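Researcher: Here's my situation. A collaborator sent me these components and asked whether they could plausibly form a single complex. I don't have experimental data yet, so a predicted model of the whole assembly would be a useful starting point for our discussion.
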Amino acid sequence: MKRRDFLDWLFWISGTTVGAFVLYPVVRYLVPPEMPEAATRRVNAARGDELAPGAFKIFPFGGEPGILIRNPDGSYRAFSAVCTHLGCTVQYRPGERMIWCACHDGFYDLEGRNVSGPPPRPLERYDVHLAGDEVVVEKAQTA
Amino acid sequence: MGSVREWLRDRLGLDEIQHLVEKKDVPVHRHSFWYYWGGMTLFLFGVQVVTGILLLLYYRASADEAYESVRFLMTQVSFGWLIRSIHSWSANLMIGAAMIHMFSTFLMKSYRTPREVTWLSGMVLLGLSMAFGFSGYLLPWNQLAFFATKVGTDIVGAVPGVGHFLLRFLRGGDQITGGTLTRFFGFHVAILPAVTTLILGMHLYLVQRHGMSVPPSVEQGPTPPPRMKFVPNFLLRDMVGWLAALGLLALLAALFPWELGIKADPYVPAPAGIKPEWYFGWMFQTLRMLPSHILGLEGELVGILGIGLAGMVWLVVPFLDDVRGIGPRARFWRIVGVIAILYVTVFTLMVYRGGTP
């Protein structure tokens, strides 16, 4: 190898190495640190007298929205409120007794099953029970 | 006075610039109208820069203060509503002008050799404009912006392989938070302007270097088309268009001031009738109409991959089309262009005609 070729080679290798050393921390810096998932398994979603039959409420559940629906018979059901299509927050339409995502017209039935529109999967269902005057929502044991 | 001019001339090379300006001319033919749209896009970009800098004087980029600072700007600051409305309307008109520029360039086959890189840089500029629109939309921190950002970043997140990385990079975490707002502000006022300045400089240099392209139908004519001096003839015509655009902006801002909406709250449902800015409409409508599963794959994934593939093909058309711009291959790509225009137009209109159930 000629001296000039060797120096050319050395120039590019050392330049690339310096570039990589500069870029690596920058790229790592751009990506936010993984925050450990809040270990929320149960939350007080509403007071017992807060929702009339047929009404619903969006409540925070471990950093994500959940939806609590009061059935006409006074019982409750709760799901993750994150649409399985593109992550919008769903709402309850009492007229049709359906859960609806306004972003792309996705519909779920009251079992959380995706029944129409683009959502590819059902909503995650949560357990609901009453504890005194509080409606407590809990991640299902299998979830 | 004369000596000052001479002093500057020697130091700045004004003679060379004057020579360049005198030499520049534009072909005149029946499609010359479409030459004005690049300059129109540039003018509206200038409006964006000026109004954007003015907005920066009052805007505060945090989830606690962003909405309130925009409300203050619109209700308390003299002409604050006007500056913000012009910024928002001009953004929309700019992307509209850029799209007209792109489609007319496509149909006139201006991307042919040696202008392939001009086309590529223009496409990058359109992408940057849409990124400006997407990042700027979140900054007032209102409900519509919150969900538009949620959906938009979720779409990026669905890209196979790198999706999760990109989603976290854009959001600054797993959720849309104040951290996302700060990031988008940084993209909008620092990163995107810096990259745009570079690419725009390159695009303008290439337009200057290669001159205006003449469409194949005119190129095949018996005589070359006559030419018009850029300065002052073409530039004055350009300025008539810019003045009209400024009038339209003032009219739109006065009659339809840009709304602020309701402050973002992660714990309310997406509002009924939610839709993205019109230039994302055709993609929104495509994703909305796809079924949940296609051939065993999730519909959204098929849609995102399809749109990405179509975009890639659109980008490399200069390398696929006939260099002369005539013959069956050229005809094929012209038909593709017409279909693309129809698809984008019809699907965009459907967003506004379709409504919600």
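Model: Some features of this prediction you could bring to your collaborator: The mean pLDDT of chain A is 90. Residues 67 and 74 of chain A are 16 Å apart (CA to CA).
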